[in-house]
TrEMBL record:
It is an enzyme of class 3 (hydrolase). InterPro entries: Cellulose_Degrad_GH3, GH, Glyco_hydro_3_AS, Glyco_hydro_3_C, Glyco_hydro_3_C_sf, Glyco_hydro_3_N, Glyco_hydro_3_N_sf. Belongs to the glycosyl hydrolase 3 family. It comes from Physcomitrium patens (Spreading-leaved earth moss). This is beta-glucosidase. Its EC number is 3.2.1.21. Residues 51-377 form the Glycoside hydrolase family 3 N-terminal domain. Residues 414-623 form the Glycoside hydrolase family 3 C-terminal domain. The gene is LOC112284018. Gene3D superfamilies: Glycoside hydrolase family 3 C-terminal domain, Glycoside hydrolase, family 3, N-terminal domain.
């Protein structure tokens, strides 16, 4: 018998034995590891195998600064997060981010049951923690676009840029309905109108993928998508005087119709997680509100994903914060919280939960419900099959296509509030072939200022904090080659006079802020030197004022000086989008997503209120009347 035949027979034998062994391996592996099994079968099989320590570990989310593969392995930690601005190293690259998330995942893979972690970040207007990521307009501007399809596309782009850094989960979208612009987080809200906020939940389709009709439960389409988080449940935008983490005083009907309105849409879209609000409803902390978190959210609304606490949200159940942490842990978990964003003192948290389970203060049934929800999300996200980052996605961070999408979003978010009128002639569209143009205001030439909070750092910051094009840079790109642009951040009085400027572009606005640091309970004035700068510049030359802000500010006293006034909100990294509209490459299409008040003593004042006397009403927005279509 030839050696060829012998070789072939040996090869065949090897193949047959390999197939047998492979089948044996499949037959031996636990059912929860079998992707062919239905998700609920996998959930129940895995849950039945877990120890109490493993279950509590899944309910524990810790900050990356205290995490390591060994900590994850030892405490069976199920989730890690980056707090605002928390990165593996200064201006970390996608590869460095992936190296970090993969190292944490490796730690999880060393545990007995190999349950993968999820890694969360606040990618609330792009993957904004990461240097070089595309920074999209904040939600207040997106609400002015009234373009759900655009917002869905932004979600898709954001998902790719988040996955480009090996991250699987974003704490977005914020579907707060901000009813008072004194709230420091009003720019995170799409609108004062719950119907506009509802329409913007299409971002979940972009972030997670569009779930099939009739789908029930958390959804994730592929490893090019990320788990989303509708937040903050519920009433975060309705607190008294807009106080962050304050008290929402209203009856249940108003809470449901105004502040809960968008949650059924988010749930129907398969949102994987919902974050609890720090705020209180009629003086009861949301983090301890079993009626709303369990009876309403999980019961009536049928939410089958993960309810996650906010950062130290459990600690803040008691006043002063942390005063009775042991009792707060019991209250929060029994109220229906499934994952606790601890985020630092995880050993203490884990031991307290174990103690409460031992005494029956936290029923094991509550633990099993929480862990079942966590596992359901992780199985649906196919993290057991694909636990590690896909290195091929790293090139999506800051891609040219995403930059173009962001410019489109900037253009559509701009709202034209004045263009001529009274003694002032119409000025927009600006003449891009003007011989001499003056640009003033620090906000014209500052990426950090035009991005606002939640950009690179938690609070945001001034200067070249990340890549992008300033508004001034955009102006220079759009105008004619023979036009001269003179830029003065804060010129002396009378500077604009007699220098032959055809017009001035005055870019004013707020300093960056996030959360409680943005609360402005007393006044919403434009910060100095802008009121004086507007008066002086616009008294000496025709001017358009562009406002970079997270909310409407007091502007009525200065409107008469302006030929034109544009609300640009917090446009993000693509400042060219502002110039493209100012110079008439595109028409204005934005409409106010929130009422522009006259004076702070009118607040709160929202569309539909009996007393409604705004400077510019909700839905207002002019066009320049461009000749071409
Ligand atoms: C913050 C915010 C929340 C954010 C979380 C994690 O305090 O309230 O919106 O997702 O902590 O950064």
């Amino acid at each position: 018998m030839g050696s060829m035949l012998q070789w072939r027979l040996c090869s065949l034998a090897v193949v047959l034995v390999s197939c047998f062994l492979a089948q044996e391996a499949v037959a031996q592996r636990p059912r929860y590891m079998d992707p062919r099994q239905p998700v609920e079968v996998r959930v129940n099989d895995l849950l039945s195998r877990m120890t109490l320590d493993e279950k509590i570990g899944q309910m524990t989310q810790i900050e990356r600064g205290v995490a390591s593969p060994s900590v994850i392995e030892k405490y069976k930690i199920g989730s890690i997060l980056s707090g605002g601005g928390s990165e593996p190293s200064y201006r970390a690259t996608p590869s460095q981010w992936m190296s970090m998330t993969n190292s944490f995942q490796w730690g999880a893979m060393q545990t007995r049951l190999k349950i993968p972690i999820i890694y969360g970040t606040d990618a609330v207007h792009g993957n904004n923690n990461v240097y070089g990521a595309t920074i999209f307009p904040h939600n207040i501007g997106l609400g002015c676009t009234r373009d759900p399809n655009l917002v869905r596309r932004i979600g898709s782009a954001t998902a790719l840029e988040v996955r480009a850094t090996g991250i699987t989960y974003t704490f977005a979208p914020c579907i707060a309905v901000c009813r008072d612009p004194r709230w420091g987080r009003c720019y995170e809200s799409y609108s004062e109108d719950p119907e506009v906020v509802r329409s913007m939940t299409t971002i979940i389709d972009g972030l997670q993928g569009q779930c099939p009709a009739g789908w029930r439960g958390p959804y994730l389409e592929s490893n090019r998508k990320v788990l989303a988080c509708a937040k903050h449940f519920v009433g975060d935008g309705g607190t008294w005087q807009g106080k962050d983490m304050g008290n929402a005083i209203m009856n249940y009907d108003t809470l449901v119709k105004t502040h809960m309105r968008a949650y059924p849409d988010a749930i129907a879209k398969g949102v994987s997680t919902i974050m609890v609000s720090y705020s209180s409803w009629n003086k009861q902390k949301m983090h301890a509100n079993k009626f709303l978190l369990t009876d309403v959210l999980k019961g009536r609304l049928g939410f089958r994903g993960i309810v996650i606490s906010d950062w130290q949200g459990i600690d803040r159940i008691s006043d002063p914060w942390g005063a009775n942490y042991i009792n707060s842990v019991r209250q929060g978990i029994n109220a229906g919280i499934d994952i606790v964003m601890v985020p630092f003192d995880y050993v203490k948290f884990i031991n307290i939960v174990k103690g409460h389970v031992a005494t029956g203060a936290i029923p094991i049934g509550r633990i099993n419900d929480a862990v079942s929800r966590i596992l359901r999300v992780k199985f649906q996200a196919r993290l057991f099959e694909y636990p590690y980052a896909d290195n091929s996605l790293r090139t999506y961070l800051g891609s040219l296509q995403h930059g173009a999408l962001a410019r489109e979003a900037v253009r559509k978010s701009l709202v034209l509030l004045k263009n001529g009128g009274g003694a002032k002639k119409k000025l927009l569209p600006l003449n891009k072939y003007a011989s001499k143009i003056l640009v003033v205001g620090a906000h014209a030439n500052d990426i950090g200022l035009q991005c606002g909070g939640w950009t690179i750092s938690w609070q945001g910051g001034r200067g070249a904090t990340t890549k992008g094009t300033t508004i001034l840079g955009g102006i220079r790109q759009v105008i004619g080659r023979n036009s001269e642009v003179v830029y003065q951040p804060n010129p002396s009085a009378g500077y604009a006079k007699g220098k032959g400027f055809e017009y001035a572009i005055v870019v004013v606005g707020e300093q960056p802020y996030a959360e409680v640091n943005g609360d402005n309970l007393n006044n919403l004035n434009m910060p100095a030197p802008y009121p004086a700068l507007i008066k002086d510049t616009c008294s000496n030359v025709a001017c358009v004022v562009v406002m970079i802000s997270g909310r409407p500010l007091v502007v009525e006293p200065y409107l008469g000086y302006m030929n034109a006034f544009v609300a640009a909100w917090l446009p993000g990294s693509e400042g060219r989008g502002v110039a493209e509209v100012l110079f008439g490459n595109y028409e204005f299409s934005g409409r106010l997503s929130r009422t522009w008040f006259r004076r702070v003593d009118q607040l709160p004042m929202n569309v539909g209120d009996r007393y409604y006397n705004p400077l510019f009403p909700f839905g207002y927005g002019m066009k320049m009347g461009l000749k071409r279509a």
